[in-house]
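Lab meeting prep.
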Amino acid sequence: MLTATGELPAKANTEPQLAIALIVAGIVFLASFFGILTRPVGFLAAVWPANAILLGMMVRNPAFATPLGWLAAFVGYIAADLSTGGNFFVTLWLTIANMTGALTGYLLFRLAPESDRWLQRPASVLHLFAICCAVALAASIAGGGAARLLFGRDFFHGLTFWFITELVNSLIILPVLLTFPGFRKLRELWPAKLSPALLQHALPMLVLAASVALAIMLGGPGALAMPIPALLWCSLTYRTFTTSVLTMLLCTWLLISIPANFIPLPELPDPLRSLDSLRLGIALMALCPLTVASINAARTELIERLSHAANHDSLTGALSRGAFIDRSETCLRINQDRGTSLLMLDIDHFKNVNDRFGHAGGDAMLKEFVVLVSHVLRPADLFGRMGGEEFAVVLPGLDMIAATSVAERIRQALEARAIKMPTGGEVWATVSIGVATRAPGGWTSFDEVMLAADRALYEAKDAGRNMVRVGAQQAYAAAPTLN
């Protein structure tokens, strides 16, 4: 309902903000509570995910980064510490330090290129490391003085301890949030069933788990480095997000197990400084697989772009002639036991468009035609540009009647569409289409099917254009014609 001034009531605007605030406060509370549970007696938490999770939320969802959202995070920190018996003054001090680090990181990420926010370039990991260092420095300066109250150390020791702890937590948690592809994409990538190929793909993970078990059995300082080769193998095999998750799980386990003596290590005279050294080593270890995964992702993207450029027409985005023929021949072999149809399409009087509107007008028509055809086709269909204004479509699994219906829908879609020219004005175009079908067990040569469709196309041209003609079929007594 609108108010007398024509504005929505305030409630309609505040409800989403309150929902966001509750989400932020709840997530920060749960993350802080988990961190408190990992806190050894007399120390800060061994794992403190709340700051990195808060920063990741704000970077991935700018709508959360409102004054109310930051206030909700502040309340979440306070509530978690007080609910576990924390002193109010110390809790307030630690919360201010946590918020200082998260705000610093958010401001720096806003200055970074978008590709660096998602770790899409090799240099992105270096930028991430620099931002994490700045976050850790800001938080440690704000909270280092609390070391005297917590475990009787001076400001310098508190600053060092906080800096290293904040750095390692940021480096192992932030990449997971920054590279998270979304739940829908995860469902698409999740395998539907087990297979030998899937088990082979999981081999790096299994080796990583085995190396962790070996580290527990052997113990000693070298145990920390035993999982690194397997982790690097994972970074060469999996996506950046998967590598980030595996790195986070391994480093989190190390951060928890070392203070709890799950991994036997030699006794050192100063436990706090020893813990600083171990956490710094874990932070630097987390950089290695992230860097490799980022480089591998950039290389894979480059290969995909080059492959797309080699196999697709640069103007229209349809398959190039060579790629279309190669994939069509493969499609015919795969669908040997069921019908497969081929359409040959030629835009009528295309030369007149070029003569009247220039090559820019002809290019605009070709692009619009490809868009129209793509809307009619299925994802499994193949669509290629054979040259000039001539295109071809392979329809796997469709018989002659179904393929003719598809061709007629394409013809009607173009006939009903006015195509705008770059120089102004509109053009109404038509298309002639030839159809040929390979019945189950029929032709095995793609050239034979294409020749039949090509002949049908020229029949449509000779009969007056803007129509569909069906070529000779195997296993069909007569070929119907649609005008």
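Slide two material, second protein:
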Amino acid sequence: MIGSFRHKGLGAFFATGKAGRLSVQNVGRVSRILRALDAAESPADLDLPGFRFHALKGELSGRYAVSVSGNWRITFAWSGQKAVEVDLEDYH
């Protein structure tokens, strides 16, 4: 389940389906990732074929990432049974 968003445009897209504030072209993929994230009970549930799920290291340790396109990733932390601080970012 998604508990909170860092990226306001991503949160608005999740709530309304309107993609105007997203900075990526592949909105369909973003939608699939968010649906999977909302249904997940643990970070490992996102380790699906094609998602390129991975735990982040260094300064971003404690966060996870799923590939959207190019350098764009949906990143998130996990608290209890919720994904929190869900973000859309190019952290490379």
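Talking points for slide two:
DSSP finds two helices and four strands in the chain.
The chain has a mean pLDDT of 94.
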